[in-house]
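Q: For a teaching handout, I want to show students what a protein-ligand complex looks like in token form. Below are the inputs, and the small molecule is NAP. Please produce the holo structure.
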Amino acid sequence: MDTTQHDVIVIGAGFAGIYAIHKYRDQMGLDVVCFDAAEDVGGTWYWNRYPGARVDIESVHYSFSFDPELQQEWHWTEKFAAQPEILRYLNHCADRYDVRRSVRFGTRVVEVTWDEQNDHWRVTTDKGDVVTARYFVSGAGTLSVPKTPDFPGVEDFAGQTLLTGNWREDVDLAGKRVGIIGVGSSGIQAISEISKVADALYVFQRTPNYATPIANYPTDPAEEAADKARYAELREASRNHFLGVPYSDVQPSALAVSAEERREVFEDRFKKGGFRFFIDSFGDILFSQEANDTAAEYVRESIRKRVQDPRTADLLCPTDYPYGTKRPPLEIDYYEAYNRESTHLVDVKANPIQRVIPQGVRLADGTEVELDVLILATGFDACTGPLLAMNITGRGGVRLADEWADGPQTYLGLTMAGFPNLFAITGPQSPSVLYNMPLAIEDHVDFIGDSIQYMRERGLTVMEATAQAQDQWVYETNALADMTLLPDSASTWYMGANIPGKPRRVLVYVGGAPRYRSICDNVQRNDYRGFAFATSTAEVETATPSPALDPALAAIVEILRGQGFTGFEDAGVEGSRAAVESFTAMQAPRKEIGRVVDEAYGTDPEQKLRIFVPEGEGPFPVVVYVHGGGFVAGSIEVVDEPARDLASRAGVIVVAPTYRRAPEHRFPAAHDDAYAALEWTADNVAAYGGDPSRLGIGGDSAGGMLAAAAAIRARQEGPELSALLLVNPLVNPVADTPSRREYAEGYIIELADLQWFGSQYLNGPEEVTDPRLALDAADLAGLPQTLILTSEYDTLRDEAEDFATQLLGAGVETNVQRFDGMTHDAFLMSGAVPRCIEQRLAAADFLRSALVEGAQEPEVEVVTA
Ligand code: NAP
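A: Here is the structure, written as tokens, with NAP included.
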């Protein structure tokens, strides 16, 4: 028995392990030991040697990028390399970086336990080794645990049984009667090859697949030279692409073009091959069923053209799940295999496999198919399987298997709360297979290396994701998947749906590589947001973590940074207006509602309003909703989408005015206009189906201040109001609160922005005592019932919550709801920030209860969402 101590234990010697060993051992000087159950390097490419195994991303992209010399020197013989060549490449890399001396091959990890006394991981292997290390890095892969065969009698089969996912030998199938179960990527590649040599091939198909041409060809020297000449640029473009490939021809919507144009695009992408059809044709294929239908039908047509027997063609055409919701297999002559007399397609959905018998397979109707060889191409216990197989126990004796009983819980798909210093390269809920794997792996290995370095520089020993950060990540991951058609596929492994009893949760992050990488950048740039650090396990639970900003908002902060946005003052008046206007690009599609009418309530071009009437029978209650934008920016267009959303969810008419903006019009122009729009609404809304006796007002940010000030004025001058909705409102331009100081920078609206907006609107500093601007100095008694929505990481949070206390003190029915992890303006970003829906629902519930159903009970304390 070997008992040794190391700095880092790495699992797996595939792409991930090879780079991890090189990085941590050679570049960082750490003591690294790696375990792999295989007898040599290669990972997936070691285990999957079935005939036809081949990569589905161009090899020039599906390869390491960290070593410029390697990528210049290596020559791929084909556009999409076959398994032997990729394994040769990985062997070359293993030699080049001398990784084998750090790997214990033929050794399987059977137990992994966090030792709280010594702040390290203890790993036990099937050889009886016990080794320890401060850091545990799994490079065990996503598709490395084959699904356990679920056919009774499989062990009784008298012939040879082979598993595509564990196929190491060279098997001669010539002249044999071969059966293959499964038509995923593995089955499809194998069928194409085996059909050429087998005496008879029986394909047992349950769910047909949408396979498209890979369009492979021998490397063209001119193309290779051109790629190598701009390799750095290609890698950069890859990392900025959803799938990690440098494609740039995607068009926004399959539904926005004519049928002819659509066909041209599909034909072109089919011809180009690879994932061009899937990811480089139309951007809404994975989001809109209607768009998806067009792609699915195109694939079905191609199948019907290629398969001679119409009944077989029909069976091969998928019809009951959307294209792309299973990883689209890429093929070479797959459909032509069915034109051979020796290939037989067996529909095991209609006539299921009853059991495996010694001489072959027996179907439910009693048919027996005699076989010499049975191949199981039945897939993998994807993403979670490889980690769960290691029997991992974290802090406090918590078992990963228990934590994940209802699906994976991770932060960034890389770490887990309760499992200190444990990292899963391309783990569940990371982009993994939806991001060109070698690049996804390099990003993760680098992130882990940087984290270790960060800790070493600060004398820290323990790093752990917080529960809040993890919950936010799980929410983001599930919410993004729900925006796609993925959950509509009955058996996709992306959702764990291929394994009986496995929880139905999305296993891959579907936000794309650029969004994911922005979030990771934001996490690292801000002292590892969402992580707690300590010098011992005992302290990690009480350590103060860096704020866990909602991932979607972290991505937006980084995108703004990447676009060179350095604040509203630098952007100037026009730049600020353009920046706020660009929020519309982060909104969900505008809902269809009953009616939308534009009107004017004054003679200035900015004194306009838009009336949003919901579906159904009026008269409807009415809310005037005043946009934000620091009195300088914002417009009806920015609130069009939220206004439609509120109108349809709450069943109220929303009237959204614009108003004269600063600096052209200073205080009190915007205040006067907001009130004038309210008056206009009270006088005129009946003509649009509104009931002015059930009237409310609301607004966000500076619009919240304008709404509150109008409500205060209306108390004396009318109209009578029944509801006040304030979303992240400005309460006092010179408030001095902890949230203004703590979240002064890096959270969408910065303190400097507030100051600049104030300087644009106010005529002079003396004005800030005016109770129309210093709402906290106003008499608040008699205001209508109020809901205030605040965000944890908003400079304006505290003044808004203090204002709620003042309202309550003045006897106003007031609720406050604070949204953890959120920032200013998230309310407007329904398309980009999944948790925006929580705020919308809270606002709509309030309007419905205050205006449609009558008064609600007041709540005194701050409720966190
Ligand atoms: P898969 O996509 O999960 O396909 C498994 C197949 O087995 C499905 O057709 C499934 O049918 C069938 N099956 C499973 N259990 C069955 C049962 N009890 N009775 C009948 N049929 C059964 O697995 P895979 O083909 O190994 O591919 C997995 C992933 O590996 C791919 O999606 C891809 O990411 C990766 N891969 C990539 C390549 C490449 O091109 N580079 C090649 C191979 C694999 P149902 O759909 O009805 O469940």
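A: Two things your students might notice: Confidence is low (pLDDT under 50) at residues 855-863. The domain at 553-853 is CATH 3.40.50.1820 (Rossmann fold).
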